[in-house]
Structure formats: structure tokens, C-alpha cells
């Protein structure tokens, strides 16, 4: 009996030791897994119900609050394992206040974590900037990059659609200058089709990236025409006459040749590009003008090099007059008839040459060769016969008075 009492006493000690150990473990566990706080920064905020602003023809930009910072409180073993990816931050735009602010709510993604922690937002306000939403149409500009094979060039491009609709904030849309479709033509020698993405550019040639701007299509079907090239000369022919006493001393233009591209049949018919509508009528001073070669080309043919203009410089100079002394010995009697004699009589006959000073100042009768055609002059006296003069570039003549020729036979 006494032995049993001792055994029971030992069991009681063992139970008491176990309970004491449990209490000690719980005490240690509570001490090591104490309550703590921790700040977690830059949790991205998701906006929902933004369509309520679309219905009001408004778009928004986030001024502040696109991320949120929180303070998390809970047991160290839980809080210590958490990061920004364990939380969801929501801004419901349908609850926006009259000051254009929205309250941000944050909660843990895991339901088990929700029960273990408390969350406090450092700043739970998202600030929005509202702006009028506008719609505008823009043409699509096809831009080619790279170089075609030698002897070939891009003749033309087209896109479908060629005009697109752009929606977005008014201030952003107003900055748009071009909608481009870029196509690489490097080493190409034949026409082809492709479907490039569309990109937005401003007046400075910088690409605009704004997620609030939307296009009704993201790409366009582009056709690129590539043909063989042909180089031909340019000819500039002037129209009209300068003012009285003035003349065109020279015409200079650059370039003098132009490289064309187009269907082979069309190019085969072009040997020169003739510019025939540059007028000098009434001009008394030098003149310069730019001519667009494309205006003188048939449909389907274009200029390879851009810009396709030539600059035409026209020198207008005042003319000088020189009166030449004429004698009966100054004339050449052409096509004389054998057995006939010819006697010339001058009736106040004079020749006045008009032209540029460097030419006229050196001019003599030997240069202009006054000539009378005798083949149509029978025996007799012929008054006011026709006198011809050698034509010299840039020189005009005025003859006054008359010339008479008396034709007799040798026997007479």
C-alpha cells in the first residue's frame, strides 16, 4: 500500500513537470513572437470603375497616390514575412469627391493573414486631374527606312485606312503632329505589302507615349511601290520678253539632272524634263524662283531625291545700242547672175545692233555680214531690196532707210 502511494506521488511529479515545461514553452514562445509593426512602401494602387468618367467625356491623370505606404501591426512571425506583393490597394473612381480625390483601401490578399494583422495607411488619398476628352482625325504618314537596291527606289506608298481617329485628353491630343507607319525597304527591288504598327509623334519628331491616348486601329496595311530609276536632264525654257531695253543674259539652275522612278512604260517615254512656264515678261532685274519638278511629270512618276525642287537664277541685263557705219562696200552680193552687173545705192541706210555690252562693243560689219540675194533681181532698178544679217546670240538689229540695186548687163 505504501509502495503504491510512492508510485502515485512520482506520477504526480511527472505531470507537474510536464505542465511546468508547457508553461515555460508558452512563455518563451510569447516572448520571442512578440507584437511588432512594420512599414511597407510603394504598393501599386489599382483604379477601378474608370468608365464612369468616360461617360462624362472626361479623362484623368493621377497627380499623386498611384502608390501607397502602409504600417502593418501583428505577430513578428507573420509581419516579418510580408511584402508589397502580399497586399491589394484599390481606388474606386466612382467614389471620387468634388475635390477630385479618391480614398484608397488596402487589404491583405491572404484571408489567413487578414485575421493576424491590422493595416494603417500613411496616406490613403489618390489625387486626380480631370480633363476634357476630345476626338480628332489624323492622316497616316507612311515613312520608309533603309535603302533599296541600287537602281531602284520607292515610287509611292499608300495605307488602309489612310485616316484614323484619336481619342484622349485635350492637352495631349493637341500635341500630336503625325501618326506614322514606318516601313523598312532595305535592299528591296520590288513592290510589297506589310502591316506596321502606328506611332504618334509631336512637332519635334519625338514619339508620344501616353496610355490615355487611344487609336481606333493599332496598325495599318501599307502598300509600297518600288520601281527601277532613270536619270534625265532638265531643260528650262523661258517665256515672254524682258522690259524694253533689257535682255536675258543667262539662266543657271541646279540640279541639271533629276533621278525619276516609276513604271518602266512611263519612264521609257521621258527623255528630258522640260520646264517651260518660267516667265520673264517685263522684267528689268535679276530673278530667282524655285520650280517643283513634280509638276512636269506624268502620273505615276516621281522624283527620287527629296526635296524635288530646282532653283532657277535668271540674269536680266540692260542692253546697249551700237550704230554701225555702212558703205556700199559693206554688202555681200549673193547668187549673182553671170553677165549682170550690180550697183548699190544707200538711201539713209543704217544698222543699229542691240545687245549686251561685252558683245556689242566689239561688233563690226564683218561679224554681221550684210547680204543681198541677187538671184531674184532681173535687169533694172530695184528699190528697197531685202538685206539679211548674220544672227548672233543675244543680239538684235534695227535697220532704217533703204538699199537700192541697179542691175545691168555687161553689154550695157
Return the structural class: mainly beta
CATH 4th-level superfamily of the largest domain: YbbR-like domain
Q: What is the end-to-end distance?
A: 199 Å
Q: Assign the CATH topology of the largest domain.
A: RNA Polymerase Alpha Subunit, Chain A, domain 2
Q: What CATH architecture of the largest domain would you give?
A: Beta Complex
Give the rounded overall mean pLDDT: 89
User: What share of the residues lie within helices?
Assistant: 10-25%
Number of strands: 26
Q: What is the domain total for the residues?
A: 4
| Strand-residue proportion | over 45%
Q: Tell me about the biggest sheet? A: 11 strands, mixed
What ranges have pLDDT less than 50 throughout 5 or more consecutive residues? 25-29
Question: Can you describe this structure?
Answer:
This protein has 412 residues and is mostly beta strands. The chain has four domains: 32 residues; 89 residues, RNA Polymerase Alpha Subunit, Chain A, domain 2 (Beta Complex), CATH 2.170.120; 91 residues, YbbR-like domain (RNA Polymerase Alpha Subunit, Chain A, domain 2); 89 residues, RNA Polymerase Alpha Subunit, Chain A, domain 2. Strands 1, 2, 3, 4, 5, 6, 7, 9, 10, 12 and 13 form an eleven-stranded mixed beta sheet that branches. Strands 8, 11, 14, 16, 17 and 19 form a six-stranded mixed beta sheet that branches. A four-stranded antiparallel beta sheet has the order 21-23-26-25. Strand 4 and strand 5 form a beta hairpin.
Which secondary structure elements does this structure contain, and how are they paired or packed?
Blueprint: H1 2-32, E1 35-48, H2 51-54, E2 58-64, E3 67-75, H3 76-79, E4 87-92, E5 101-108, H4 111-114, E6 117-121, E7 125-145, E8 152-160, E9 163-169, H5 170-173, E10 178-184, E11 192-194, E12 198-201, E13 214-215, E14 221-239, E15 246-254, E16 257-261, H6 264-268, E17 273-279, E18 287-292, E19 302-303, E20 309-318, E21 320-324, E22 332-334, E23 340-355, H7 357-360, H8 365-368, E24 371-373, E25 380-382, E26 395-409
Parallel strand pairs: 1-4, 7-10, 14-17, 22-24
Antiparallel strand pairs: 1-3, 2-7, 3-6, 4-5, 5-7, 7-9, 8-14, 9-13, 10-12, 11-14, 14-16, 15-20, 16-19, 18-20, 21-23, 23-26, 25-26
Amino acid at each position: 500500500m505504501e509502495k503504491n502511494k510512492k508510485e502515485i506521488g512520482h506520477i504526480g511529479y511527472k505531470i507537474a513537470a510536464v505542465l511546468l515545461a508547457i508553461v515555460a514553452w508558452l512563455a518563451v514562445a510569447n516572448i520571442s513572437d512578440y507584437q511588432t509593426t512594420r512599414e511597407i512602401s510603394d504598393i501599386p494602387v489599382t483604379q477601378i470603375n474608370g468608365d464612369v468618367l468616360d461617360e462624362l467625356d472626361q479623362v484623368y491623370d493621377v497627380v499623386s497616390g498611384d502608390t501607397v505606404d502602409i504600417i502593418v501591426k501583428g505577430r513578428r512571425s507573420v509581419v516579418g514575412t510580408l511584402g508589397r506583393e502580399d497586399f491589394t490597394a484599390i481606388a474606386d473612381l466612382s467614389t471620387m469627391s468634388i475635390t477630385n480625390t479618391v480614398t484608397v483601401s488596402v487589404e491583405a490578399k491572404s484571408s489567413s493573414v487578414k485575421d493576424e494583422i491590422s493595416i494603417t495607411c500613411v496616406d490613403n488619398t489618390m489625387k486626380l486631374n480631370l480633363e476634357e476628352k476630345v476626338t480628332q482625325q489624323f492622316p497616316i504618314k507612311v515613312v520608309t527606312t533603309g535603302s533599296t537596291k541600287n537602281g531602284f527606289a520607292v515610287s509611292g506608298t499608300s495605307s488602309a485606312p489612310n485616316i484614323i481617329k484619336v481619342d484622349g485628353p485635350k492637352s495631349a491630343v493637341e500635341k500630336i503632329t503625325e501618326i506614322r507607319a514606318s516601313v523598312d525597304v532595305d535592299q528591296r527591288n520590288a513592290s510589297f505589302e506589310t502591316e506596321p504598327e502606328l506611332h504618334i509623334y509631336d512637332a519635334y519628331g519625338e514619339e508620344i507615349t501616353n496610355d490615355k491616348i487611344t487609336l481606333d486601329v493599332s496598325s495599318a496595311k501599307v502598300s509600297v511601290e518600288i520601281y527601277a530609276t532613270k536619270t534625265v536632264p532638265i531643260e528650262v525654257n523661258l517665256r515672254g520678253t524682258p522690259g524694253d531695253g533689257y535682255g536675258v543674259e543667262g539662266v543657271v539652275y541646279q540640279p541639271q539632272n533629276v533621278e525619276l522612278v516609276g513604271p518602266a512604260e512611263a519612264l521609257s517615254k521621258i527623255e528630258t524634263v522640260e520646264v517651260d512656264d518660267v516667265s520673264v515678261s517685263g522684267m528689268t532685274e535679276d530673278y530667282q524662283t524655285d520650280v517643283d519638278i513634280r509638276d512636269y511629270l506624268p502620273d505615276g512618276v516621281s522624283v527620287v531625291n527629296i526635296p524635288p525642287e530646282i532653283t532657277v537664277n535668271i540674269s536680266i541685263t540692260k542692253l546697249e545700242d551700237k550704230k554701225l557705219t555702212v558703205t556700199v562696200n559693206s554688202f555681200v552680193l549673193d547668187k549673182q547672175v553671170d553677165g549682170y552687173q550690180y550697183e548699190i545705192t544707200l538711201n539713209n541706210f543704217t544698222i543699229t545692233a542691240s545687245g549686251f555690252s561685252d558683245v556689242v562693243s566689239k561688233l563690226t560689219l564683218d561679224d554681221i555680214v550684210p547680204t543681198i540675194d541677187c538671184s531674184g533681181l532681173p535687169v533694172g532698178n530695184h528699190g528697197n531690196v531685202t538685206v539679211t544679217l548674220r544672227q548672233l546670240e543675244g543680239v538684235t538689229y534695227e535697220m532704217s532707210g533703204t538699199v537700192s540695186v541697179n542691175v545691168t548687163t555687161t553689154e550695157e
